[in-house]
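Why does residue order matter? Because the sequence determines the fold. Keep that principle in mind as you read this record.
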Amino acid sequence: MLTEFGKIFVFLLVAVIFVVVVVFVAWFIRPARPTKEKLTTYECGENPEGSPWVKFNIRFYVVALIFLIFDVEVVLLIPWALEYKVFGLGGFVVGAVFLVLLGLGMAYEWRKGDLEWERVKIIPPIVKKPIFSTENAREEETIKSNILV
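Structure:
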């Protein structure tokens, strides 16, 4: 008789064997006729241009992750919106606190600038020599002496 862990082990073993067998059978029976067109990168029916190893802007991933986080949190609001009356004032307050925290998180991301596709590039200030420096005084003397000559 198998224990519970033994049943889980047998289930996992059968699953791994099934995957390996299916992949091997698919590899064995498929036709192998590679052509130049089959080996190119597929881009939605368009002819590929350039290298497939294009560097994406990290902002794409940041915006996508923020979207997923807030999207999942909003999905959690659907059951609450349908049934908050059943839980009375306590259920309403819990949902309202959740909404306030969600709004604060969105405001934080907005203020931080993570929702903008391109951040504003900060141009460093140019430091000029002071007007009354000793170097400027020497330059003025040199210019005056050249004019007088």
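The chain has a mean pLDDT of 80.
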